[in-house]
Amino acid sequence: MDIVIDSHTHTVASGHAYSTIIENALAAKHKQLKLLCTTDHAPQMPGAPHYWHFNNQRILPRFLHGVGILRGVEANTLNVQGEIDLPASTDQHLDWVIASFHEPVFKPATEADHTEALLNVIKSSRVDVLGHLGNPNYPFDIEKVLRCAKEFNVAIEVNNTSLTGKSRKGSDVRCSTIVEVGKAVGVYFTTGSDAHFCEEIARLDLAIDLLKQHGVDEEKVLTTSTSRFLNFLLLRGKQEIPEFETLYE
């Protein structure tokens, strides 16, 4: 399975990451990626950048070191209503929106609360992908949420960092179940390194292995093709990116 996009990466702006967008792009080039999603933490995460960091991403070149740059965010799911921590006015400036649970922002609650929050964030139409769902602190009704994600064309992330055992410990078993159910339901998957340092860019080996283990069709893995990924964004209602014209083919 050839991955050409890293859909979840952080820069020093996130407050607890250690590389710049330039360093990340250079690492992506060396690792032969075609596209890089830059997805710093949204404002409610301690140490995260403010509103203007995300609204001003329009100044970023569409290519850095020959790698296409997708302007994004890892937003925080705030509550059971499925709200995220950026105003709707920011959406027009973003190509790619991840929604994730983070303990400092959404205190772990009941399975019912987590399920309701995920269903509502999917239905909000503001997010393109659900991030690191394997976190055992946030159990939810997997089949119910994934069927909703399929209906609303929201992708499911397979987060490589969650599979390393170094972060969100205990995620590996839940991630396996999520991929198994996701395959049966027919969701779209993405693969994200969740890199917080440039050397982690494109580190996706564990995510790839898990998808292979469950026999997920490559056509359901958005990050295997620039065309697949960018056309998914069109399916989500995003505007075509003129600079990436040849990458839609």
From TrEMBL:
Residue ranges of domain Polymerase/histidinol phosphatase N-terminal in the record: 5-79
Gene Ontology biological process: bacterial-type flagellum-dependent swarming motility
Binding residues for Zn(2+) 3: E74, H102, H132
Binding-site list for Zn(2+) 1: H8, H10, E74, D194
Entry annotated with the keyword Electron transport: no
Single GO cellular component term: cytosol
Residues annotated for Zn(2+) 2 binding in this entry: H16, H41, H196
Pfam families, per database record: PHP (PF02811)
CDD domains: PHP_HisPPase_Ycdx_like
Name of the protein in its database record: Phosphatase
InterPro entries to which the protein is assigned, alphabetical: Phosphatase_YcdX_put (IPR023710), PHP_dom (IPR004013), PHP_phosphatase (IPR050243), Pol/His_phosphatase_N (IPR003141), Pol/histidinol_Pase-like (IPR016195)
